[in-house]
Amino acid sequence: MAGPEQTQQEVEARGERIDDAELALQGINMLLNNGFRESDELFRKYRNYSPLMSFGASFVSFLNAMMTFEEEKMQTACEDLRATEKLCESDNAGVIETIKNKIKKNVDSPRPGVTVVDRLQRQIIVADCQVYLAVLSFVKQELSAYIKGGWILRKAWKMYNKCHSDIVLLQEAYQRRASQEAPPPGPVNDNASPREEVTAEALGRLKGSVSFGYGLFHLCISMVPPHLLKIINLLGFPGDRHEGLSSLTYASESKDMKAPLATLALLWYHTVVLPFFALDGSDTQGGLLEAKSILQRKEAEYPHSSLFMFFKGRIQRLECQINSALTSFHDALELATDQREIQHVCLYEIGWCSMIEMNFEDAYKSFERLKDESRWSQCYYAYLTGVCQGATGDLDRAKTIFKDVQKLFKRKNNQIEQFSLKKAERLRKTSPTVELCTLAAIEVLYLWKALPNCSISNLRS
């Protein structure tokens, strides 16, 4: 057990001094090394110590909700995120006012313990909380939730943009002062207005903190189709891919608690997004080399991380090392014992690698489990299960599963589900054969741009 929650006053009364930024990073590293319970206990214990530790506890709660999609956990995550927002705003009324006014207010009428760095940190945390609240709204898949989530995201973006600009200005001012010759020491003027000592290290960590959300916004919006991008830009959302990637790279190399998350975001972009969408005809090989470089630098830090093992498998799959990729995905699946959503992405990749190898028996077992457990698209997983099961020769069972596709069809505007329904109906009506089901599997590999990963010998057979 983590024991009772510790406030800053209680910790300091025992003569202890805690670096909350270092402790928060330690907690996130625990989380990524599959120490989910230990990380949760650490953040819960120091939840009331500082806004940063409170945010860490809320982030773990949010992640738990997203991994299970259980209504109770999603409600708990919302309450935790709002509690963190409240804590950030409690000593920081008017959190959205400009930093110039805040600095002026701090110089003219200083408040003990509330610094420019502290206020910026709180603003970034509030923006982070708003992003996660928006994600929890989107999960409900209701029109009102989408509108609410979009509005929350717009507020979050404004805060990220403002904080990013303010931190860059503070860094430039610090560098100018550092480059000037220090004045000769003189007598201390007790009547002078007290000023804060802002260090380069604190500013660097703060920039790393804001760069995660700032960069992710830029990157995600830059991937929106061009005809929608103009509308989104008009609503005040930018979309500069280069800016997004450079910001995430900066965040990943910082000492902020979100540095490991920025690293994962970069791996996701280079190994999942870039190869599938082939954005702007981008060089996917260059992306793979970058992903391999990131993994080589970080692998020693995360020896027990199911996510890092998953991305290792993605790189191997894209390099057509299918057997090695399968080993990595199975290892990641084993490591992710208490993380259902991570298990699902591993199962999905195991299913695809098995299809690439024309091992339809292993493929249908993975897709069948996804059909039964996943909330994403049971209709699509049912179609893949039927196709792979039919390719093994179990045609009666395949026909039954093709009937289930129609029952599981829920989202009429989803092209993947429309495709799955149409193809399942055709196979069911024409009485499926092993050859037809095998061709249907190859068709899916072709449409999902996975055919180049198949060996020539497998395709000939």
From TrEMBL:
GO BP, one annotated term: cilium assembly
Transmembrane intervals: none
Domain of life of the organism encoding this protein: Eukaryota
The keyword rRNA processing belongs to this UniProt entry's keyword annotation: no
Alphabetically ordered keywords of this record: TPR repeat
InterPro entries from the UniProt entry: IML2/TPR_39, TPR-like_helical_dom_sf
Family in the record: Belongs to the TTC39 family.
Name of the molecule in the record: Tetratricopeptide repeat protein 39C
